[in-house]
């Protein structure tokens, strides 16, 4: 009879937990609001060292680009008269060695790509379209030319005082070229958020150990550290803590006291005998905003905020299963960091299902899948991976997207459209 009572109590506890769950959209709104409270700071970086960083300022052009009317190619510069097809060549202008010439409609100058056009010239005819020597140039038979061709006008690309690069741009090589053209030797970029990862569980060993008997390597610690680094943020490895309340409490307290921006724990967030994380959150004074989201994978995910001396730390308790932890990192942390910094690194797309899917509950599912792009009809095609187990990291490694199946949708069929997230 005692055993029956205990079992009944467990069922009631589980049912209560489900009642307290919130939807994915509710959880996302809560986290989006919390991320806005983070104190973003900028720092000045040498231009070349800023590659991959996110721009914390608008960059304005200090000059017109191009700074003067110039030739887009090698050829002859002329003053347009459509009836004239033969010109007297009166000089040459190499790039960077401008000389003044008085041009009329019957004269021309040899000009090189990027060279400044002399006053009166409004058209450049490419060298391959003329027969020329040092004294004269004549248009080849059948060649057509129009006024303004092959001329890059002053300020055509960007006028002085206009924005050349917008704040929140993730800087790549082509952005560096623009900043260099504006005379920027250094730029203001956002300081990376410090994101700490603590893995919990008696079953975990580090990756340099060979697991014995009932142990497993702690892969999710490294997948999350890599994900943080991939976002351009600062990963902080808080290591592995066994299922010991004091040890986990001390590790988390130390991270919070060091003003970490985001603290992530994995494992210990369910309702099992050794799932201490929620209790430790409460003891640390973390304001828990939700515990349990009606999604798969990652139902037990916990989120809260910790504030002290004007500094806010966002705290996520993710499930210990490696797939669950990584999927929920993408959904709540990567997505919100991207939005906070005005970035769009989380790529969403609509795909056409290549096979039937099975979903028989009311949760929102994020299924691992593989997408391909069909050049012929311009569509993404997507199919699910075989196993959707939250512990199957090998299948996650073969996937390149998450297939979103909304709460109200059941058993989508081949040919239907689904929203997906690239991973």
Structure described in brief:
The protein is α/β, with parallel strands linked by helices and 423 residues long. 23% of the residues lie in helices and 30% in strands. The chain contains 8 helices and 26 strands.
What does this structure look like?
The chain has 423 residues and is α/β, with parallel strands linked by helices. It has four domains: 20-41 and 192-340, MoaB/Mog-like domain (Molybdenum Cofactor Biosythetic Enzyme, Chain A, 3-Layer(aba) Sandwich), CATH 3.40.980; 42-64 and 157-190, Molybdopterin biosynthesis moea protein, domain 2; 70-152, Molybdopterin biosynthesis moea protein, domain 3 (Molybdopterin biosynthesis moeA protein, domain 3); 348-422, MoeA, C-terminal, domain IV (Beta-clip, Beta Barrel), CATH 2.40.340. The chain is built from eight helices and 26 strands. The protein has helices at 2-19, 24-35, 173-181, 219-230, 245-257, 277-284, 322-340, 393-398; strands at residues 42-46, 59-60, 70-71, 75-78, 86-93, 107-111, 123-126, 130-132, 136-139, 151-152, 163-165, 186-190, 194-200, 204-205, 216-217, 234-241, 262-266, 287-291, 295-296, 302-308, 311-318, 348-353, 364-374, 379-384, 401-405, 417-422. The strands form seven sheets. The chain has a six-stranded mixed β-sheet, with no helix packed on it. The longest helix is centred in the C-terminal third of the chain and has 19 residues, at 322-340. The model is unreliable at 1-19 (pLDDT under 50).
Descriptive key words:
six-stranded mixed beta sheet, Molybdopterin biosynthesis moea protein, domain 2, Molybdenum Cofactor Biosythetic Enzyme, Chain A, disordered N terminus, 30% strand, alpha/beta, Molybdopterin biosynthesis moeA protein, domain 3, 4 domains, 423 residues
